[in-house]
What does this fold into?
Amino acid sequence: MINLDKLKSTGLKVTPQRLAVIEAFVELKNHPTAEEIVGFIRQKHPNIGVGTVYHILEIFEEKKLIKKVKTENGTMRYDGLYEHHHHLYCEESNRIEDYIDDELDDLIIKYFKNKKIENFKIEDIKLQINGKFID
Amino acid sequence: MINLDKLKSTGLKVTPQRLAVIEAFVELKNHPTAEEIVGFIRQKHPNIGVGTVYHILEIFEEKKLIKKVKTENGTMRYDGLYEHHHHLYCEESNRIEDYIDDELDDLIIKYFKNKKIENFKIEDIKLQINGKFID
DNA sequence: TTCTTAAATATGAATGATTCTTATTTAATA
DNA sequence: TATTAAATAAGAATCATTCATATTTAAGAA
It folds into this structure.
């Protein structure tokens, strides 16, 4: 998950707005949209600009601190976890959770060691696991 | 792949515009955007409305004739193949190809028969296979 | 500490894909 | 052939995102 140290290690300037975006990722669960992040931050910093947040998110993505998550309806959501992982989706509730499973990754890697896809060189495989959360 | 018979079997009206959208799916490869579909159709039917195409695509999706494909940059693309399948993506060229692999599906289903995900009931699993096309 | 400067931010206008509204037309059927 | 619900064309409206610009600021240098 994104944090201050990771931000510092990129060489980017540490600004109150960037700290606020990081805080938003820590506090907000479920892969927030840009608007949700702005809403969260405005509780404490009412003057943050929407454009600024979009800009910060873009920069953070470039620096591999966060990932964009495309959703069914088109609006972007953002994931504070950059490292390789999969997603659990519930279309009903719109909830998204990260799913990490090294054993599964191994299984799939092994599978594609034997069975090549013609005309395609695989670099990365992500699973979109659709279903329902039970709680 | 979508075709006239499938359209008829939904009970929807068969209109020239809908036939043209079906033709666009058959002719255009690589999961076209709404704009690309409009462009293709306008070669023969210059007066088709953009809103009409969006409306047809929405209806077709509801009736399970096509699928929406979300892309990295946000604009929707459409897939004339509805049946369960995976996608090969190349971020460089923006090309998307369908990938069908029953053996792989079996493997994954078996895996999740043993290893349940806590608090989640799986309904469907799709793979996003990122890499490069070689031709 | 103060200065310097490139980088970051706020603001609001612009864009572009998609949706909506409304009047008109048409496919299907009786 | 007449009827009618559904489909379409046209263009306005929306909404997320991007862009342009003037202002401010973080971080390193002096």
Observations:
- Residues 13-15, 33-35, 50-51, 54-55, 58, 74-76 of chain A lie near DNA strand D (CB under 10 Å from a C1').
- Chain A has five helices and five strands.
